[in-house]
């Protein structure tokens, strides 16, 4: 029986088609856009869960576009990492879409919002499923350009400025990636990642590969917002509408940044100890610098945005350890971060929706008026601060244990320090926003509408019970396969080539 | 039950701690039914209290280190939520500080867990059985593992240098919560972990024992010095809660069975009299609607039962025989002397500070008792104000236990559960027959009372005090509220400097940390100017550095 590999192109085609239809008909039928987006997101969530099952049954699955065998044609590959990322992205996006159902009402031209939203989703899914390096670049740009538009969607002064900065820096990153791809293409004469890995493995690693590695580190590092390529993120993520911030911080930087970086460095170029060392250092630097910057912020969303830098640092640190446990911890933290950070941004959205402010100093005592938002923010804060038994605790535990196991005691210590500071800064959020005396300005504030609450609760439940993924069976099927895809390095994608033939 | 076997373990230590936890929960709930009546969020309050009880018991019974850390971490969260229910304006700030300290040390415990696992030689992280590890501390990594886990125990118990949340919480959290968690439960849990660490999880080096003893001694003296000069009842008691932990650490830090037994006994005793003090003091301050010492006074007549229980607990904490605090302190002194037989002069220092701390404790309780019960009232108190049975019963029971544990120390607590918990037979070099001592003391007091009544009281006459013809009630300046006691301590040359530094929060790890953090944060923010060219320059710089690092070596 041939595996139903046709679900892979659906991951791209559905949102892209949805965006197209919305762009055509959205203005005429205002109810269509949210409905279509929700349906698409729900189907995609189903598909991504199906992909895990598919992977368990058949192993690596390859879809060849138009029946052209690789390396001539474009292929789409489903391995452990792909399935993991698909589930992460589509889960978060589905819940964010539910949140949008109520939230987007405050904007004009709603259908535009959904067009860009679905485009971003298509780009992200494309980056994840594709097995072709140039294809990856194209999807990356689709997602990136759509997200520039989304950041500017509020069309206020600071939003436009942030979008401009984001666009310029994003383009610089993209250019570096394109240059890297061009150089690789010139030296290997192929664009299929698996094939490219095979060619590179046969030739001696030289200065050229190292140069390409640097370009990719910078380009994908820019997308992932690791220090020192992070400067666009706090502006962009804090200026976007809240659900978009949730999507950008929750999944976009991971799909375009962390995933692509891992795929290229581990599966195509091959990770030498020195590159791992660089990843470790960059990860630790982002982790610490991000959290120090975050703790001084008074703008809630800016604070959250800086924490994204810090948390991505954890992910990179875990992956940079290069041990199975470290990579598993890093990926698990990636999943967890996308859950709790999305939740935090959505909570900030509820606060902004209810009070119209993002300034922590102006809030106070909101717990009395927004009890559900307060509770979910608390759950997400506990998760991001790594308080047991919330999900963030387990992934941080894995990362710290892996660092100790690799005898990287210094990095383990920095991870702990950043964790303490993360806790401190979220205590600040809780204190100024939710606890303390109710600011009399907010006496008439009411809790969010139904769909927003639904989304918050779903995220919070996932944050509380996310740690269950570490139970042996779930771990093997989901996180284990994903981290195997990275640990096995260049061999794994070779399997993708043989599969297709 | 076999499925639970690798995760939970019942022994004398965990069993007795759990029993105390359950007991305090009952008392706290009874007290809260009186104290918290009419407050908001009652459902949440009792829910948190019950959850705290369940998780504490789970933590104590947990044999799996990961499970333990999970329960432990959740307890910190619950304390945070309970503190936030406080009605004072500082509650939110204090809750934040408390949770940063406790949660922060929990993060350190994760590191300690990881290090312990790397040393323990178990295949899986989830196989770390607390009671069977016995990791010898031979390398710096071992020391780090121990210190990381220790920090969790110290923060929970409120020992220095992680103590600063205790006085703040004592002041701002709802009073029953203070009596329940920082005064009793967290002591039990923190010291429980300390004992587990020292006895079961690690095999300590001599240096670490010395470190613990010095830490304990320093905590005793420094905290009690701070307690001396407080003007707020709850805050004063909060500093004593810190100081008493010093005795426990000192006893357990000796590493002898006698010292460990003494430390554990002191832990149980402290939780008894400290909750009693908070409960009975709270009954007064609820009546007076203030915690400030200079606005209290004269409640000995109005609330005689509360006064008695407070007095018993105050004498117990000061180590007056025949009460329980004396017996446990006596055991700790003896264990110090036993250690001293084999080594140096350090033990004399520890012993001196323990004794000195005990004296200062008594002194500061004289101040407290005077200010609350004996001083001339700041406001007129009309008739008897004794509180309801709900508020009275818990501290009456606790005071009774203080007496019982003192008079029958060897028969009841030491013989029944502390001895079995320590395991090895305990050797008592210094003889103290609790019951005989108590009877003799009672006889002495009785004789004194008879002499007093015959010699003085019967021949006395009552007159108004003569104050140069002035009416005393009209001279507020003539009132000794008790706040002025020991004011001169703050003016002693060297101490003056220390008290000043303490008032500037120079010794508060939390304050120091937050100042440093915000300083670095500001510095980093300053270079984030928002100018695109600068940011692009960083990117270029990043590429150059990456090229240099990755290409540099291969060329």
Globally, the shape of chain A reads globular
What order do the strands of the largest sheet of chain A run in, or round the barrel if closed?
1-2
Main sheet: strands, sense, barrel of chain B: 2 strands, parallel
| Number of contiguous helices of chain B | 20
- Detail the poorly predicted runs of chain B: none
State the share of residues found in helices of chain B, binned by percent. over 70%
Helix content of chain A: over 70%
The tally of strands of chain B reads 2
Counting DSSP E segments of at least 2 residues, the number of strands of chain A comes to 2
* Estimated share of beta-strand residues of chain B: under 5%
Distance between the amino and carboxyl termini of chain B: 64 Å
Provide the number of structural domains of chain B.
Answer: 3
Protein structure class of chain A: mainly alpha
| Major sheet: arrangement of strands of chain B | 1-2
Which value, in Å, is the CA radius of gyration of chain B? 26 Å
Biggest sheet architecture of chain A: 2 strands, antiparallel
Query: Topology as H/E string of chain A?
Result: HHEEHHHHHHHHHHHHHHHHH
What pattern of helices and strands is seen along the backbone of chain B? HHHHEHHHEHHHHHHHHHHHHH
Poorly predicted parts of chain A = none
**Radius of gyration of chain A, CA atoms, in whole angstroms:** 21 Å
Question: Structurally, how many domains make up the residues of chain A?
Answer: 2
